[in-house]
């Protein structure tokens, strides 16, 4: 009988130790996952940076440059990005509420794959489809992921960036 009691005690201690280690591993994995998520600062130029000069042609044939945009709400999208599909309607709603700012939407993909996004954006924004590997706007804004949103002022300085277009109404901040 004493042998059985000792075995139950040892087994109970081992189970509690295993449970404690499991909670520690789960906590560590969650911390790594949260830390590895890219923020807006990782996807494009940071707040305070100046967008280099660029020239691009919109889907309506208009040539745009940094100097000609003025204060602008912008968004970069990819047709193969699920988050882009989810946030596109929010970008459209935010763009409709904008007053005094122009709106620029840049789609990285070919004309065929971006057709639905162009249709959703063409009434509220100047839309540029960048299919070539050079991607002048993507390079100018230092885009490394999608979707990426922000605001530039009339001098081409980034005043706000974020992953959620609805949180870009006030200038000079970074949201996640």
Automatic annotation (TrEMBL):
Residues 45-176 form the Thioredoxin domain. InterPro entries: Thioredoxin-like_sf, Thioredoxin_domain. This is Thioredoxin domain-containing protein.
């Amino acid at each position: 009988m004493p042998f059985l009691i000792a075995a139950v005690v040892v087994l109970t201690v081992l189970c509690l130790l295993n449970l404690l280690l499991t909670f520690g591993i789960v906590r560590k994995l969650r911390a790594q996952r949260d830390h590895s998520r890219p923020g807006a600062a990782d996807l494009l130029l940071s707040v305070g940076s100046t967008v280099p000069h660029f020239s691009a042609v919109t889907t309506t044939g208009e040539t745009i440059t940094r100097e000609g945009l003025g204060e602008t709400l912008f968004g970069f999208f990819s047709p193969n990005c699920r988050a882009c599909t989810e946030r596109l309607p929010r970008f459209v709603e935010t763009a409709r509420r904008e007053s005094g700012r122009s709106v620029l939407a840049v789609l990285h993909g070919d004309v065929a794959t971006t057709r639905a996004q162009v249709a959703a954006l063409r009434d509220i924004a100047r839309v540029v489809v960048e299919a070539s590997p050079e991607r002048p706007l993507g390079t100018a804004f230092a885009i490394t992921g999608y979707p990426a949103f922000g605001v530039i002022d009339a001098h081409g300085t980034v005043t706000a960036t974020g992953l959620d277009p609805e949180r870009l109404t006030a200038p000079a901040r970074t949201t996640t």
